[in-house]
């Protein structure tokens, strides 16, 4: 009887291996797919970021799909719902909001899908596997120092901010002000958000100049807004009076510096960030688990003095 009972128990364990939970932990099967979620594709800089990430993932042997959140947190949440349902292996992520995007990343983590933030960060130390970020604060310290020299320590300026929910907006603004605010002759006439959008920046700059006609400079949180501000200044016939400063190092801004339209920008390296993020995701999928929480990426100040060095770079 004892031998018969033991035999039956062994047969049950063989037929239903899930019963032996301690020795047969279920593992997530690889789908061989990587998702690339970008805050917006209505900006050439983010197009480069997304396409470079997807291209590198494909080089590594994965199917890669780009999801455009259109700067809309609700649409971003929908993308994460679909990505989780379809069982992607990893997410290369450019968030829409530092706080609002945390929940999406946590949901993916609970589903066993690691997230690798690119360029923009989320306000969580453990939700994302790692965050690869440009050193925006230090870059704008350098830009602020150049701004002070170009302005000879005096004049009225405008600041056009990016998305107020994005940490990059405030890292750049704070880096800039950590230098410029030390010079009482430099006075900020207005500060307003244009959501990193070129057309909005043009409208914002037009409105500001109507109320403040004696503007000497404008500092913009990205190059798209700097180019929008330039359009407004051009329409007002003041390109010889207003110096424009941006951030990103986009091709249009670099060309603008070479042509004397833009005073300076800070160059980021989206291709480096995105390709490195794809490499890290590949390493995770293959078993690596020890990643740094954040990895800063150095940026470079570009002015008329050194612009020729960067005109052919992407």
What's the arrangement of secondary structure elements?
Elements: H1 2-15, E1 33-38, H2 44-59, E2 63-68, H3 73-86, E3 90-93, H4 102-110, E4 115-118, E5 130-134, H5 136-150, E6 155-161, H6 167-180, E7 186-193, H7 198-211, E8 217-220, H8 223-235, E9 243-245, H9 251-258, E10 264-267, H10 270-285, E11 294-297, E12 300-303
Parallel strand pairs: 1-2, 1-3, 3-4, 4-5, 5-11, 6-7, 6-8, 8-9
Antiparallel strand pairs: 10-12
Helix pairs in contact: 2-10, 3-4, 5-6, 7-8
What does this structure look like?
By secondary structure, this protein is of the alpha/beta class. The protein is built from ten helices and twelve strands. It has helices at 2-15, 44-59, 73-86, 102-110, 136-150, 167-180, 198-211, 223-235, 251-258, 270-285; strands at residues 33-38, 63-68, 90-93, 115-118, 130-134, 155-161, 186-193, 217-220, 243-245, 264-267, 294-297, 300-303. A six-stranded parallel sheet has the order 2-1-3-4-5-11, with helices on both faces. It has a four-stranded parallel sheet with strand order 7-6-8-9, sandwiched between helices. Strands 10-12 form a two-stranded antiparallel ribbon. The longest helix is centred in the N-terminal third of the chain and has 16 residues, at 44-59. Residues 1-27 have low confidence and may be disordered.
């Amino acid at each position: 009887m004892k031998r018969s009972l033991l035999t039956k128990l062994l047969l049950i364990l063989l037929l239903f291996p899930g019963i032996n939970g301690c020795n047969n932990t279920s593992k997530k099967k690889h789908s061989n797919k990587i998702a690339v979620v970008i805050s917006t594709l209505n900006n050439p800089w983010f197009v480069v970021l997304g396409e470079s990430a997807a291209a590198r993932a494909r080089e590594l042997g994965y199917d890669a799909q780009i999801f455009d959140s259109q700067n809309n947190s609700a649409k971003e949440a929908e993308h994460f719902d679909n990505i989780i349902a379809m069982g992607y292996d990893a997410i290369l992520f450019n968030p829409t909001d530092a706080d609002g995007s945390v929940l999406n990343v946590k949901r993916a983590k609970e589903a066993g899908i690691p997230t690798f933030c690119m360029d923009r960060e989320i306000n969580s130390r453990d939700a994302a596997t790692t965050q690869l970020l440009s050193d925006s604060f230090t870059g704008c310290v350098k830009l602020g120092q150049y701004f002070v020299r170009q302005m000879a320590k005096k004049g009225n300026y405008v600041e056009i901010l990016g998305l107020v929910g994005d940490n990059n907006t405030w890292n750049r603004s704070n880096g800039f002000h950590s230098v410029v605010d030390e010079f009482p002759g430099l006075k900020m006439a207005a500060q307003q958000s244009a959501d990193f959008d070129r057309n909005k920046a043009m409208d914002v700059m037009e409105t500001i100049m109507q109320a403040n006609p004696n503007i000497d400079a404008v500092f913009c949180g990205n190059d798209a807004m700097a180019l929008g501000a330039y359009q407004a200044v051009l329409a007002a016939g003041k390109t010889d009076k207003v110096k424009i400063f941006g951030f990103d190092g986009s091709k249009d801004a670099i060309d603008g510096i070479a042509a004397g339209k833009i005073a300076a920008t800070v160059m980021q390296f989206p291709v480096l960030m995105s390709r490195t993020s794809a490499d890290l995701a590949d390493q995770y999928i293959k078993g690596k688990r020890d990643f740094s929480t954040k990895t800063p990426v150095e940026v470079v100040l570009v002015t008329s003095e050194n612009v020729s060095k960067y005109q052919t770079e992407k």
